Amino acid sequence: MKIHLYNTLTRRKEEFKPLKGNTVRIYSCGPTVYSYAHIGNFRAYIFMDTLRRVLEYNGYQLQHVMNITDVGHLESDADDGEDKMEKAARKENKDPYEIADYYTKIFFQDMDRLHIEKPEIIAKATQHIPEMIEFVKGLVEKGYAYETSKGIYFDISKLDQYPVLSNRNLEEQIAGARVDVDTEKRNPYDFALWIKAPKNHIMKWESPWGLSYPGWHIECSAMGRKYLGDEFDIHTGGIDHIPTHHENEIAQSKGLTGKIPAKFWMHVEFLQVDGGKMSKSLGNTYTLDQLQEKGIEPLAYKLFCFTAHYRTKLNFTFETASSTQTALTRLREGYVKHLEGQEKIENTKIKEYEDKFLETINDDLNIPAAMGIVWEIVRFPQKSKQLADLLLKFDQVLGLDLVNSKDYLEKNKQIEIPKEIEELLNQRKQARANKDWALSDEIRDILKQKGYGVKDTKEGMEIQKI
Ligand code: AMP
Ligand code: ZN
Known about the structure:
By secondary structure, the chain is an alpha/beta fold. It folds into three domains: about 5-270, HUPs (Rossmann fold, 3-Layer(aba) Sandwich), CATH 3.40.50; about 290-410, Up-down Bundle (Four Helix Bundle (Hemerythrin (Met), subunit A)); about 420-465. The protein has 16 helices and 15 strands. It has a five-stranded parallel β-sheet, sandwiched between helices. Strands 6-7-8-9 form a four-stranded antiparallel β-sheet. Helix 1 links the parallel strand 3 (about 25-30) and strand 4. It starts with a strand and ends with a strand. The model has no long low-confidence stretch (mean pLDDT about 95). The structure holds adenosine monophosphate and zinc ion. Adenosine monophosphate binds near residues 31 and 237.
């Protein structure tokens, strides 16, 4: 079946086919590892995961690269401010490499908790300095880059067109902007490829331009080219990457190779919190741990992300996320009921669901609509193992770890028992040990009134919410 994906470059949905054979080559802009990744960041990686899984579901092989930015991402996405890694290192009084290792480790732990598939190649910027230097040298040789006292800059006036990805009108922007001009730059929108390091800068390398470090955009261009070649299939990122980071990646590649590096450019919209922006100053850049503390599992957050299409804004509140946690429990229960069901479902019905699901996910990853199909199956009145198998098949795309539903339900049951109920259970246990059957029965009735059913088994008491 055909796959259609929205391409930011052409501003429309297009049919997707890999450039070469059966392998899809993807580059995803990864995290800058100077701090904990927040749930907004994870919306981007959940989208990346869904894209991978949809392509795999369609039978494609993947060669997927994600970078780890551990140097060169300045405080603004353009050339202003300090390197985020160096700033964090100073604040935490640690070595920037130590900072990078620590947050990279936590990042991948969180990715695992979300059941996000790990891209085939993880590329750390600091391990690709020679490739970046070669790229910049190439641009200088071809006349696309020039040296100033601050570094090596890309000359955008050498391109036939800039920008190509965003429809920014540079002239209007320049006219309206408060001018903060670097007089050494040839054009206001020229950007740094390579930055000469101030004396106190820790991360720096020998280069033809002295001790210096890479700009953020050149990292992705050089690593993408190394692993995927001059032209590959898909480049992903967040919408914030469109006007600067990805625009400049395209400029760099066009300068060196004459080609736009990826055929499809896909961007995920932002997650908002309480109807507004996420920001450190508002204290709403929540981590997965902070959600977990409030009883929202990482996978419930993933399910929450599935409530909106990746190209629309999504608003996070603890209230809606909590109801998604309940929905996740219902989903798991629904799966288990089917698993234990004995009824026979017509093969035509199964096929109908399969076709509808495939058609939906292949329409620019329409996961909210695909979830509609999943819920219909969960609520299907006849309970059947065939439907449980179908849900598992669909979970290849969703990555909600449905196969372990029973374990999660068991674990959550234990977690959800409030203190007061626990105390009653202990009292009942004591009563039974004392062979005080009347008290035992009385406590059982109190528990029932409070919404909990108890069953006495060989292993002890089993408690259930009723
Ligand atoms: P960073 O580590 O800051 O480079 O960001 C990592 C990824 O998270 C990028 O793809 C960003 O586009 C994305 N991102 C940052 N904030 C949000 C947000 N609020 N919603 C969705 N994606 C975001
Ligand atoms: Zn990037």
